[in-house]
Every structure is written in structure tokens, then in C-alpha cells.
Amino acid sequence: MQIAPETFGKVAVMLGGNSAEREVSLSSGHAVLNALLTQNIDAHAFDPAERPLTDLLSEKFDRVLIMLHGRGGEDGSLQGALQQLNIPYTGSGVLGSALAMDKVHTKQIWQCLGLPTAKYKIAEKRHFDVGSCGAIMHELGNIVMVKPAREGSSIGMAKVTSAKQLETAVAKAFEYDRHVLIEQFIDGAEYTVAVLNGRVLPSIRMSTPHVFYDYSAKYQDNTTEYFCPSGLSDEREQRIAALSLQAFDALSCSGWGRLDFMQDKHGEFYLLEANTVPGMTEKSLVPKAAKAAGISFAELVVSILATSLESGA
């Protein structure tokens, strides 16, 4: 259904911010802003690192399209502030945003519900015993991924194959977060699935010569390959789509987002994480999936903006 531009009123595209993902956020935000302007929507850039949120009220903005990645934009804090200001916004509410931002809590919820996710350990900065690294490596199969609990864009992540490497990687990850996820490495293909207003878009398979799909592979070089259609059979495509909706709903997410998976040699899928404000740059995955589904970038952006018409959860 076509939505008249004036329905949205004056729109603030929230971009930039102070997180470690500021540069990606600026790229996403400006791409989204330009798309809204082509649709005759009264949209304006708004960087909360440069001005207070109360300017949204004084400048009479009607709603916010959130393109802030990482902390301060994707973790529920901005969503809570906008609710206090009574300003509608896009995507997940406070609870869904906070849960999905925290990889540890995400894993715990999925595990409790019986959704497939790799074995893991949690390292807490104040109590982590470096002497346990050998036992952790042995228990998790001797190859693990180390991830700060609340960072995105693969920031602070590392793949390690020894106890000494694990000690170093955990210490590095502690620079970003006091909680660190140590996760069994699933050797296989990596997939991502976008969810848009209850609809699952075609899966994408990523292939990179990097050690893993890291920040550089995502945003900086051109060696990563993307396959959409991903090459999955109809049965596997239905399976990953169903898992995506279950995982998304389990975290109380809403509106739009993206789920990341690994597939092992037996064809089984394992959930990695959920993203409630995925990237929207020219290299980003959600626009690629939308294109495969016959949805243009401008149509995608308007659909994301339309999630603000039902926000406040």
C-alpha cells in the first residue's frame, strides 16, 4: 500500500552518534536521507553527537528514523528517550533493542527456547581467570570466536585457535565491554536474513577471504562475495526463514532487522546474533536482500520509516 509522503510529517534521520560505529552510521544515515528526499518526504539529518534530543521538540519533528548503529542508538537508550519525548521512531522498542544488542543475553534467550546456537562461555572482566583458557578451548572445540557482548560491525572480535590467543583476544575485547562472549566456531557457510514488517526477505550467503566476516570485509574492501539467491534448497530456505522469525520474536524485536547464521557441514543452521538497526550503506546486506525480493532502495527505506507509525512498544 502506497503511503502519502505527508503522512510522515517532518522526519529526523538519526545518524552519527558517539559509538564505535559512528562512521558506518553516517554512511547509512546519509544514504537513507537521500532516499527519503527522492520520495518527497520532509526528512532532515540529526546527529545527537552534535545537538540535544530536545531539539526534536523545539524543531517540531513528527518522527525519527533511527540509523544510529551500536551503543546509544541500537541498545534501547535512544528508544527510551524518544518514548519519554513522545516521538514515534522506527524499529524495535526498548526491550527488543536492549536484548538484541547484548550477544550474551541473546544467546541465553535463544538457548532457553531451544533455538539452535553454538556452545559458548561468558568472560566477565572482574572475574576472568586466564588460567581457564586452555579448558575453555578444549570444551568449545579448540577454535572459538571472541566477541564483546555489546558491539556491532565485528568490532573487537577475533577468531582464535590456542589458549594464548584466547587470553590476548579476551583482553582486547575487554577494552570494549566488561562482558565477552566466547563462542564455539562453526566451520561452514555464513548467511544473513532480513526481516521487514513480518516478511522474511531472501537469505544471503557471504564468502570472504578474510579469517572471518570482519569490519574490513563488511565495509572497506571489495573481496567479499554476496550470493542472493544464496543457493539454499527451498526446504533450507524455509527453515532459515522460520528460524529468523522465531529468533526475532524471541527477543521482542519488531519492525525490521537482520539475523545472522552459520551453517555446519551437516547443513544445520546456528544463530549468531540479531541486529535491530542493520547497516544501510551501499555494501549493506538488507538492501541486497530487498533488491532480490523486487524492493528498491527507496521503497525499502519508506517501509522502514513506516514502522514508526506503530512504534512505542
UniProtKB/TrEMBL annotation:
Please give the Pfam families that the UniProt record associates with this protein. Dala_Dala_lig_C (PF07478), Dala_Dala_lig_N (PF01820)
Q: Name the gene that codes for it.
A: ddl
Where is this chain's protein located in or outside the cell? Answer: Cytoplasm
Protein name in UniProt: D-alanine--D-alanine ligase
Matching entries from NCBIfam families are given as: D_ala_D_alaTIGR, PRK01372.1
PANTHER family from the UniProt entry? D-ALANINE--D-ALANINE LIGASE, D-ALANINE--D-ALANINE LIGASE B
Copy the pathway line from the protein's UniProt record: Cell wall biogenesis; peptidoglycan biosynthesis
Q: Which residues form the ATP-grasp domain?
A: 107-306
Task: Please give one Gene Ontology molecular function term for this protein.
Answer: D-alanine-D-alanine ligase activity
Enzyme Commission numbers on file: 6.3.2.4
Its family remark reads: Belongs to the D-alanine--D-alanine ligase family.
- What role does this protein play? Cell wall formation.
* Top enzyme category: ligase
Listed cofactors: Mn(2+); Mg(2+)
Enumerate the UniProt keywords alphabetically: ATP-binding, Cell shape, Cell wall biogenesis/degradation, Cytoplasm, Ligase, Nucleotide-binding, Peptidoglycan synthesis
UniProt cross-references to InterPro entries, sorted A to Z: ATP-grasp, ATP_grasp_subdomain_1, D-Ala_lig_Van_CS, D_ala_D_ala, Dala_Dala_lig_C, Dala_Dala_lig_N, PreATP-grasp_dom_sf
Reaction equation(s) it catalyzes: 2 D-alanine + ATP = D-alanyl-D-alanine + ADP + phosphate + H(+)
The record's HAMAP family line, in alphabetical order, gives: Dala_Dala_lig
**What SUPFAM superfamilies does the database record attribute to this sequence?**
Glutathione synthetase ATP-binding domain-like (SSF56059), PreATP-grasp domain (SSF52440)
Tell me the domain of life. Bacteria
